[in-house]
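Session log. Operator J.P. requested a structure for one protein chain; no other inputs attached. Running the standard single-chain path with token output.
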Amino acid sequence: MSTHQSGSGRVGICFPDRPDFPTLLAAAKQADAKGFESIWVFETRLARDWVSQAGAIAAVTTRAKIAPGVTNSWSRPAPIMAMTLATLDEMAPGRMMLGIGAWWEPLASKVGVDRRKPLTQIREYVEVFDRLMALERVTYHGELVHVDDLELDLAEDRPRIPMHIPVLIGATGPKMLHAAPQFADGVLLNFMTSPSYTADAVARIRAGAKEVGRDPNTVVHPQIIACAMDEDGDRARDVSREMLTMYLGQQPHIGLASGLSADYVAELHDRMGGWPPEPGGLQRAMALVDDTVVDQFTASGTPDECLAAARRYVDAGAEYPIPVVLTPETTMEIVEAFADFT
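Structure written below.
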């Protein structure tokens, strides 16, 4: 594995459920031309699936790596995920990565998934995925993942050459951060977290690598960062405030991991009314999220303010920043601003 250095001027871009597809593809093409390291797409809530987006991005780019940021390890069995990545690798040879996480509640249970022992499950899942990508014939019976006598067929006339698809774990909690270097290529550090969280997370990742005799510098660890950019900085912060409130209220582990009090996070959740939010619930909860919290958890404001905020995450240990586009009307401006990130 290669050695990675933080703060080297590398940068990625990530698209959540925005912008519209013509703008998304134009931005992906521009980021590719500008030398961005990677292009990521969300698979969040029930908004957009990552596979459709990744295939479209692969068709209009030539060099940037492409990945979900992140998909989950429950809704697609490991052999189906391996088939998907093998197909995308045909479209973008050597450019695909897999960002994968353990999903979240209540979405998992709402679609009928009994999400148990997430660390055990994702570790077993990644082992099966890696072996299938290596074109092994796999029989595997773990505690939660089971495969019987399977191998990838691949497309007709495609040479049977093993593929290595880097796997980055979407880890937030301390156990997953510590364990990820033991079975994956790296970690995609979560967004809506603070730079102080990043420093702690990177320390846990490095400790986990050392525990198994792995060079910590070989553990990939970029960070997605919520980014709302506008020449009117207050307007940008208002956009981030809405998304931040939604995430803190729906996925309380994110705020708790960054040191917000349990009482504060619980009040956000109660005002929202869970997921999906009650009518008016999001607006009620937003009243609790002031500019101080927005600036602590996001890169929001003018272009200079957004770049300065991203540098704080890199200074805290993130390998490189991946701004998540929250202001669709300034998508191209975000690409242009971060093209010169140092």
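Operator note: The chain has a mean pLDDT of 95.
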